[in-house]
Amino acid sequence: MQEDFLHYLWKFKKFKFHEARTTDGEEIVISEAGIHNKLSGPDFFNAKVRVGDQLWAGNVEIHIKSSDWYAHHHETDENYDNVILHVVWQHDVDIFRKDSAPIPTLELEALVDLAVFQKYYRLSSNNKKWINCENSFPEIDQFQIERWLERLYFERLEEKSLLITELLEKSGNDWEAVLFQLLAKNFGLNVNGEAFLSIARSFDFKIIKKNSGDKVVLQSLLLGQAGLLDGKCEDPYFQELKNNFQYLKHKYSLDNSCVLKPKFFRLRPDNFPTIRLVQLAEVYTSQHNLFMEVTNPLNLLNLVKKFQVEVDGYWLSHYSFGRKHRERRKKTTANFINLIMINTIVPFNFVYASKVGVSVESVVELARALIAEENAVVSRFYDFKPDLPADALHSQALLHLKKNYCDKNRCMECELGLNLLQ
User: Fold this and answer.
1) For 313-351, what is each residue's pLDDT tens digit?
2) Contact 56/78 with Cβ under 8 angstroms?
């Protein structure tokens, strides 16, 4: 059993509360269960409880056993001085405040119906299942799932906002620079995302703006900062880029000592860091007002075209330096652009709209207009519930649900888990 189950019992009064008595036999009347605290400190703030003839206002602490009070050293922590009731599953020892005054204790074990406990046990003990509720997930009301997923989507946007806010602070609120950094990160996908972000942060974005008319210079800059022009190679184009980079390095005092080296291992050739960095250079060569385009709410649905780029020249017959192959087109695919829209444009606009004080409705509409990304987690949920909307809003919410709730067994904090218990 976990304490979150006891939190659920207390919060929703899922026990025989009319029969509640302290371990000393005094009647307990719960006027207000309090505000559930998910941070440090007592579990419920500002509760109102009558114990015997005395009405108390204060905090409630919950444990599996009474002795956990001492195991967690609450007796020496002033944050627990205002606890008015100790709620436990099993009472095994009396507890006292620092002034030696006893704290009333409510034992729940005999007050919970067996059916409620059995539902909790079935939900929380499915360690061999992909998610605890996978047998019941298809039967959950469609409206309830969609409502919960919408809430989770905003949780996910808030989570992604943390990085954007951090980048804004470190760039002196340079929105264009942050957009470039986010695009770089997501052009690197999961394998090279952090490496590409470190590349984008290793120089002033003004260098991109000043040289946006020359794709070869931008390629030299990005590939050079990535360390992909180090070493020796007799390839003429490699030599040209390397010479360009040496000039840029001297002109702008570039330093890539803190840049993470991109990886090639186990990547499909189209995802090689060389190709993705060249495509990123192509975006900034072809789009000179990208920030204005991205932040125009009337233009969001047309942004896909801005990222439809492909390499030319040398890169038509190369994935890396010195290894030639038969010429083939290497363009950003629809799936790749969809990921860029989902992971860069939507969260970036969410933060931008929030900061400048305008509605985020257009951002939500964009998320609903984008198709769901293709991955194993999302596909599994859609196998359980095929009639879920197949858009980016819902697929992103499902990823958040799996990572932040299902994988952490937070069923008691999940609206769907609580519904199954009831």
Assistant:
1) 999 999 999 999 999 999 999 999 999 999 999 999 999
2) no
Residue 69 CA: distances (Å) to CA of 34, 37, 386: 20, 17, 46
Domain extent listing, the chain: 3-112, 152-369
Least Cα distance to 153 among 409, 399, 411 occurs for 399
Compute the distance between CA of residue 390 and CA of residue 411 in angstroms, rounded to an integer: 24
Q: Cα–Cα distance between 405 and 401 in angstroms, integer?
A: 5
Q: For residue 388, give both structure tokens.
A: 């879920």
Residue 361 CA to residue 202 CA, distance in Å, equals: 34
* Structural tokens at position 110: 């005999």
Model confidence over 355-378: pLDDT tens digits? 999 899 999 999 999 999 999 999
Q: CA-based angle 328:330:336, to the nearest 5?
A: 150
Whole-angstrom distance, CA of residue 328 vs CA of residue 331: 10
Q: What is the 3-state secondary structure (H, E, C) of 7-32?
A: HHHHHCCCCCHHHCEECCCCEEEEEE
The alpha carbon of residue 60 and the mean position of all alpha carbons in its chain are separated, in whole angstroms, by 31
Q: How far is the C-alpha of 139 from the C-alpha of 329, rounded, in Å?
A: 46
Rounded Cα distance between 110 and 112, Å, is 6
